[in-house]
């Protein structure tokens, strides 16, 4: 070995030093470096996992937020729709109530007007009776007694038609030229034999009565008698 210029002792010493260096590096440098690298690798892996979990959580949160927002929008739309329906129903209710009140006012006014007209006509009945009695006295050439006068007036305005007994039905409407007295109404009801009677006033018939029960009509009014007389003279 010496002849070759190789110092075996030196080589062995170098080898031993290298082995010692490797052992030192393994124990004091390589091990900690490897451990540090492993820890860093673990931290990186954990960071990546945390980031993945955070991304999943964010996606879930976005989906939940979208779900909540969609539900809120749907609820808001429903509230608006319900409010519109409620408002329309309220408006219709107010309109219907106003129409009912208006109809009631008109009906009440018409009823008041009819009652006032009948009151005025009832007051005029005495004047009409006086004129009729005066004319009758002039025609017969002598004064009529009170009983005869009242009989003539009653016959003119409220004489019960002879054929009224043939009228039948549950309800009847009796029209007179002037309001009938309670006694005259009682006579009409008696002739109709228990039929429910409604009394109306129409000055245009001049006198007499018109009785309607269903499709039956008994017309003994002065106006119809004058029309019949006029037709017969043509």
Protein architecture, described:
This protein folds into 2 domains: 1-113; 158-233, no CATH class. The chain is built from 4 helices and 4 strands; from the N terminus they run ααβαβββα. β3 and β4 form a beta hairpin. The chain has a 4-stranded mixed β-sheet, with helices on one face. With 234 residues, the protein is an alpha+beta fold. The longest helix is centred in the N-terminal third of the chain and has 133 residues, at 8-140. The protein is 72% helix and 9% strand. It has helices at residues 8-140, 146-158, 182-191, 222-233; strands spanning 171-176, 196-201, 209-213, 216-219.
* Rg measurement, Å: 59 Å
Number of domains: 2
- Strand proportion, as a percent range, falls in 5-15%
User: What is the helix tally?
Assistant: 4
Strand numbers in spatial order across the main sheet: 2-1-3-4
How many β strands by DSSP?
4
- Overall mean pLDDT score? 77
Major sheet description: 4 strands, mixed
What is the H-and-E element order? HHEHEEEH
Features:
234 residues; alpha+beta; 2 domains; four-stranded mixed beta sheet; 4 helices; 4 strands; 72% helix; rod-shaped
Topology, pairings included?
Elements lengths: L7 H133 L5 H13 L12 E6 L5 H10 L4 E6 L7 E5 L2 E4 L2 H12 L1
Parallel strand pairs: 1-2
Antiparallel strand pairs: 1-3, 3-4
